[in-house]
Amino acid sequence: MLEILKLLPLVLGAIATPYSAPTPHVAFKEALSYTIAVDPAREQRYDVRLEGLMYSGPVTFVMARHPEYDDRFWRYVTDLTVTVDGAPATVIREDSARWRVTAPRSGALRMSYHIVMPPPRPGVHPAWTAYVSSNAALVGGPHSFLYPENRNDLHLFVRLELPSDWVVATALKQTSGAAIRYYATTLFELIDSPILVGRLQRWSFDVDGVRHDIAYAPLPTASPFDTIAFVQSIRAMTREAVTMFGGMPYSGYHFLFRDGAYGGLEHAASVTLGAASSYLAENVM
To answer: How far is CA 122 from the centre of its chain?
Structure first.
């Protein structure tokens, strides 16, 4: 049995604590819509745009800090610009992860910024950290979104701009209609749902009528391995975990695997896991 799969009973039994915060004066109307653009030609960088309807006055935007680890991702936010109804807004960086935006008038908010990460170090990497490579990327989660402080009452949407042959794996729900967007009903759900994109290998299985999806992001030099045995191992461990905990605290689950990575980090309806293809080639049974 795979060493990495020993994490699954704990992962599947974890129930995240909901985010809650006081609600200040109303600064936004109805919804915020994010766009994440990934270009594999620009490794370790992606671009984010935020759109919404904003009332005039100052609003503080913040970036999340994960409660289990803090990689100070605010260091990689660059070239932040904001307009409201076409007019430039005043942006003051109050501290490392807080930006105060003052709008000249009410209107359509347009915010844009880049996430520019340092080159990856040699060797394996933590499975839960954001990255962009030539064939895959891990975005979303706490690494991508600036959001208005103390607001958890907005409809939140995410659109992805990707190469045409890339696919998406995330616990975020998908909207209906021709335009593919993803959405979260709370801020916690948004930042607790990492998004794996790229030329992914994908499988799925059901346990007690609940769908479980597996996505694997291989390296360009990935070793071939027995994918049937790989999926069967994950399904068996999932079944065992469900039996152990007496049920599932989710309506669907996503296993997000990364080649050349180690460790794992659980979320409410997904988990990021490292599983080197070279190891899987020798140890899948």
So the answer is: 24
The tokens for 96 are 């490392």
Let me know: does 179 contact 161? Beta carbons within 8 Å.
no
Written as tens digits, the pLDDT of the chain (285 aa) is 444 444 454 444 433 333 333 333 334 446 899 999 999 999 999 999 999 988 777 999 999 887 777 778 889 999 999 999 999 999 999 999 999 999 888 899 999 999 999 998 888 899 999 999 999 999 999 999 999 988 777 889 999 999 999 999 999 999 877 678 999 989 999 999 999 999 999 999 999 999 999 999 999 999 999 999 999 999 999 999 999 999 999 999 999 999 999 999 999 999 999 999 999 999 875
| 37 DSSP β-pair partners | 47, 161
Instruction: Reduce the DSSP state of residue 167 to 3 states and report it.
Output: strand
* Threshold 0.85, pTM exceeds: yes
How far apart (Å, rounded) are the C-alpha atoms in residues 111 and 117?
A: 20
Query: DSSP letter at 246?
Result: T
DSSP H or E run through 237: helix 227-245
Beta bridge mates, 58: 102
255 neighbors 11 (Cβ within 8 angstroms): no
Instruction: Tell me how many degrees the CA angle 266-170-253 measures, rounded to the nearest 5.
Output: 55
* Amino acid of residue 279: Y
